[in-house]
Design a protein that fits this description.
The chain is of the alpha+beta class. It has two domains: about 140 residues, Sandwich (Jelly Rolls); about 70 residues, Arc Repressor Mutant, subunit A, CATH 1.10.10. The protein has nine helices and ten strands. A four-stranded antiparallel β-sheet has the order 2-6-4-5. The protein has a three-stranded antiparallel β-sheet with strand order 1-7-3. A hairpin with a 2-residue loop joins strand 9 and strand 10. Helix 5 packs antiparallel against helix 8. The protein starts with 9 loop residues before the first helix and ends in a 15-residue tail after the last helix.
């Protein structure tokens, strides 16, 4: 396992040398094909996942079979950060939105290590806190903002995590994540395309004008990034690495 300070995952790269040495022997690489569930709601979270590439969607399902995305994480976060903090039962489902690669650790091991290291435990707490702030912001966004704003915010977040202007996404998947009809996504995507902000081809969306897309989205994109900067020191450009609360 290479030095964790070089990891594309922000949590691992931010660890102190002592915590890196503590955690490194227990880490294993993992690749998740698109559509793979890491865990489902009410599952026991047996492994904690540190994404290095790709995007993981946290989704909430209803008895009707519909579901909506409550948040997304990738290289900026931890999937299952609450499990080693005695929150081992999943309250939502986590699915690979696009193919993802990363590092996993067994929850039972990470729980023991968090008890041995206060700084490791605090790092996990902060990442659980930023996830809470993120999902609350998304809930407000879904309730109060127009679909064009929400879609623009969603595309920008995905672009930040995959670090590419080409996003391997279908309109069907977008409609599921946003909790709307596919026809609604088609109309809004066409509007963004006509404005020169994106180009849609079957199965792919290419971002053409980042600044224009930022103007099109709501305040929630900036607010979510502000939560990540303040709580865990992450920003899309990597400029805030290590500037943690209280550090």
């Amino acid at each position: 396992m290479p030095l964790l300070s070089n990891s594309p995952n922000h949590f691992l790269a931010s660890l102190s040398p002592t915590d890196s040495d503590l955690l490194r022997p227990h880490l294993k690489s993992l690749t998740l094909p698109q559509g793979t569930f890491i865990y489902k709601a009410e599952d026991s979270v047996e492994r904690v996942y540190f994404p290095q590439t790709g995007v993981i969607s946290l989704i909430v399902g209803l008895t009707s079979g519909q579901f909506v995305e409550a948040g997304m994480l990738g290289r900026n976060g931890v999937i299952g950060a609450g499990a080693p903090l005695d929150g081992a039962i999943a309250i939502n489902s986590a699915i690979a939105q696009v193919e993802s690669s990363g590092i996993v650790a067994e929850t039972v091991v990470l729980r023991r290590l968090a008890r041995e290291s206060e700084t490791l435990r605090i790092s996990l707490v902060r990442h659980e806190q930023v996830l809470t702030a993120h999902t609350q912001q998304v809930a407000a966004c879904n309730a109060l903002h127009e679909l064009e704003e929400r879609l623009s915010r969603w595309l920008l977040q995905t672009r930040d995590l995959v670090r590419s202007d080409t996003l391997p996404l279908t309109q069907e998947f977008l409609s599921q994540m946003l909790g709307v009809q596919r026809s609604s996504v088609t109309l809004v995507a066409r509007k963004l395309q006509d404005a020169g902000l994106i180009r849609y081809r079957r199965g792919h969306i290419q971002v053409l004008d980042v600044e224009g897309l930022q103007d099109s989205c709501c305040e929630c994109y900036a607010a979510i990034n502000a939560h990540f900067r303040r709580l865990v020191g992450w920003s899309p450009d990597g400029g805030a690495l290590g500037q943690l609360v209280g550090s």
